[in-house]
Amino acid sequence: MDVTITASTVSGTATAPPSKSYTHRAILAAGYAAGATVESPLVSADTKATMAAVEPTAVTW
Fold this sequence. Notes:
2 helices; single chain; mainly alpha
């Protein structure tokens, strides 16, 4: 078997999936700051409950 190896360039971006644990922490931390935003949270029943506990009037699902 003959194999030819050539030089190449790899590029791009990767986005890690959101974490439920990090989402809970971010929501709680944001609760201490007026106007804070949590971007790309993992949305689940647990994180929705945390959001509702921190800011009951701001959660709309």
